[in-house]
Structures are given as C-alpha cells and as structure tokens.
Design brief:
The protein is built from ten helices and 19 strands. By secondary structure, it is α+β, with helices and mostly antiparallel strands. The strands form five sheets. Strands 3, 4, 5, 6, 7 and 13 form a six-stranded mixed beta sheet that branches. Strand 3, helix 2 and strand 4 form a beta-alpha-beta unit.
C-alpha cells in the first residue's frame, strides 16, 4: 500500500515586541504569555556542492617492467593484474547493490518497507554521518541523501522517521548550511550524537601510498589532515563527502588517487587502508543533531540541552542583556552562533552627523544546558522575550556525552 504523504505546517515559537583539474510544543512548559504562531521564515533554493567526474581515461599500467630481471617479472605481473581485476570486478558488482542516495527530486517516492525505522543522513554508505545514524539507532535502516536539504524534506514528507545531520566539528567548526536549514524547515531537535572521527588514507588494492599523487575527500577532512597531506605532497581535490571519494576511486579504478575516509568505507568499496589516524589532532569529534517532525517532552530526570534562535533590536548592550538572562539564572551556555538574516541582511541606521550606517542583521543560535521543564529555562526565555524581536525553540533534548 502506498505511503500517504503528509505535509505539515509546524508551529514555530515566535515573540514580537514590535581541486589541479578538479574532481568534481507544544510540549514546552513555557510561560503563559508566550505567543505561538505558525509561519514561514523563508524558503530558498538549495545550494549544494556538486561532484564532477574526472574525464581522464585510465590506461592499463603494468606494475613492473615486463622485461625486468627481478623476481617480480612477467608471471608475477600477470598474477597481480589478474588479482586486481578480480577485486575491481567484485567491487563494481557490490557498488551496484548499494542504495542510491535520495535527491530532492526523489522525495515523491514511497519507502520500500515502511515497517522499518528509517533514519536519513547526508552522503553515501560508509560516510561518518551514516555511522552517527547507526550509533543513535543501531537497528535502523539508514537512508542516504545527496544533500542536507533532501534529508530535511525526507523527514517532513514522512519518507523517513528521523534525520541525523552534522552541526559542528571540534576542529572544523560549525556547519553553517545546517544552521540555515534548521530555521527554514519545521523540524525539531530531539537528540544529539557525538562521534569520534578517525580518518584513514585509502587506495586501490596493490597500490602503495608513495604511488599516490592526488587525494580526494570532503573539504573539512582535507583541512583536518593538513600535516599528513603536506608531508607526502599530495594534490588535494574536494568532493561532497568522504565516502563518496572512496566510491569514486573504486568506480573509476584510479591508481594514482587516494581517499580520506573511514575504514568502513574501505570495506564497502573494496579499497585498502594505507594509513590510519591521519588527522592532525587525535581528539576530533563531530556533533550531530537528531531531527524529527514532533518535539519530545522535556524532562528533569536527566541532563538536557535546549537550542533556540532569536533576533534582537539594534542598541547598545542588547546582546549582553540577552545573554545575561542565562547567567543570572546560573544556566551554562554551550554554544553561540550568529548567522546573517537572509531576508534582511543589512540594517540601516540613520545618523544625522555621519549619514546612513549599514550593519549586518543577525540571527543568534544558542545552546544551553537546561531542560524546558526547568523553571529557570522558562524564566530565562520569558526575560529574553523583552529584548527579542523573534524567538524560536528549536528543541529541548537529552545531552549526549558518550564517545
């Protein structure tokens, strides 16, 4: 039976006070005077990275000179060729059986088995986002998506139950795209996952790392392995995600090209791990958000975290006053991020002495350690209402401290 698509208009809590050649709540216990209002904060065209194809023919290159007098001569070379061909042939067959990532255009397709608990992630099998989804829900069916936007929409259209998407990395910082999408879509944060990231250098079977000339990976992975890449003098080329780099090398049998990805990606795509733990800092952690159509009921019996977004009027000390509402109640802030407003990127201020001044108009995203069931959090947001021109609770959810 086809799955009925339901598109909801989710309530938002608002307050109003007035590569060389590149490879291409209603459940929140908020004060009674808070005003709930359904609305759109703006939609825009999804801008995503693209993966181009290296249009370079890969000729068959002998591993050794066939006329060599060394022990690795003709018979040995033919054996190595045969072995590599068998491995690559098996790899190609396996790749065909992998699930194709959903794109935004695919979101009218109903799931093949709606009885499974399905969790969307961005990337292809073997991505670190898939590992985060399986850490959060070990028995789930992990559903790959081409873009972050597709993962958000898959949840909204009931094609999957939840989405697990990265929001920040201990070395690379915030994933700004997902901050923007949090506001554009009507999903709720219902949990978080912290995943230790261990990068590996991967290559085709029989290839040594000294033979590599080019390394593919996600831009953040390349940046986080800067010292290793500089040591070997590799040319760096960016792709959408780490596992896609491994998939691309396996699909095109690129012997001069390696990938920075996970050991699981090597296993999936038939590659060898040439080096492990190549990141510059061993303490490399990515934090992921778990997104759902409905919020969870906040509780006080375990550590909770709450995420909000708000805007402020222009004025001296307004941001200080906004942050002070948490400090006065002994609430710890764990994250603050600012993003320019898409609809009002600039604010014009008249000054009779110096003419018109223009300032960026910002959205402020804050995470704090308190549940919305905690009166301190309720009072803090009631106080913040006095300064905020817009305020929305993105989610109140259990804090994850396990790695």
């Amino acid at each position: 039976m086809a799955l009925t698509r339901v598109v909801g208009s989710w309530g938002s809590l608002r307050f109003h006070s007035s590569t060389s050649e590149s490879v291409r709540a209603r459940h929140w216990g908020v004060p009674a005077d808070f005003k709930w209002e359904a609305g759109e904060f703006g939609r825009g065209k999804c801008v995503c990275c693209t993966v181009g194809a290296r249009q370079v023919a890969q000729p068959a290159v002998p591993l050794e000179d066939e006329n060599s007098s060394s022990p690795h001569s003709k018979a040995s070379v033919e054996l190595q060729r045969l072995t590599a061909a068998e491995v690559l042939g098996k790899s190609q067959t396996d790749l065909i059986s992998l699930p194709r990532p959903l794109s935004v255009a695919d979101l009218s397709v109903s799931p093949t088995n709606a009885s499974h608990f399905r969790v969307a992630y961005q990337g292809v099998p073997g991505a670190y986002s898939e590992a985060a989804a399986l850490k959060a829900y070990p028995q789930c069916e992990a559903v790959p998506c081409e873009q972050f936007e597709a993962a958000f929409k898959a949840v909204e259209l009931w094609l999957v139950d939840k989405a697990v998407l990265p929001i920040e990395n201990s070395l690379g910082g915030s994933i700004h795209r997902n901050y923007d999408l949090l506001l554009r879509h009507r999903l709720h944060i219902v949990g978080e996952v912290q995943l230790a990231v261990h990068y590996c250098l991967l290559g085709l079977p029989g290839v040594r790392k000294e033979e590599l000339k080019i390394v593919l990976s996600h831009p953040q992975a390349l940046a986080q392995c800067e010292m290793t890449l500089s040591k070997f003098g590799f040319i760096r080329e960016s792709v959408d995600d780490t596992a896609r780099a491994a998939q691309f090398i396996a699909s095109n049998a690129l012997r001069d090209t390696g990938a920075i990805a996970s050991a699981r990606a090597a296993e999936i795509y038939g590659l060898n791990v040439l080096a492990e733990g190549i990141q510059d800092d061993s303490e490399n952690v990515t934090r992921f958000l778990i997104l759902a159509r409905e919020p969870i009921i906040p509780r006080n019996d375990k550590p909770f975290k709450t995420s909000i977004v708000f805007t402020l009027e222009e004025g001296p000390g307004v941001l200080f006053k906004a942050l002070a509402v948490f400090s006065l109640r002994n609430i710890n802030l764990t994250k603050i991020e600012s993003r320019p407003q898409r609809k009002r990127p600039l604010r014009v201020v008249d000054d009779s002495n110096n003419g018109c001044a223009k300032y960026f108009d910002y959205l402020f995203y804050i995470d704090f350690e308190a549940s919305m069931a905690d009166p301190r959090a309720q009072n803090a947001l009631g106080n913040l209402q006095e300064f905020a021109t817009f305020l929305r609770v993105l989610g109140s959810y259990p804090l994850d401290s396990a790695l």
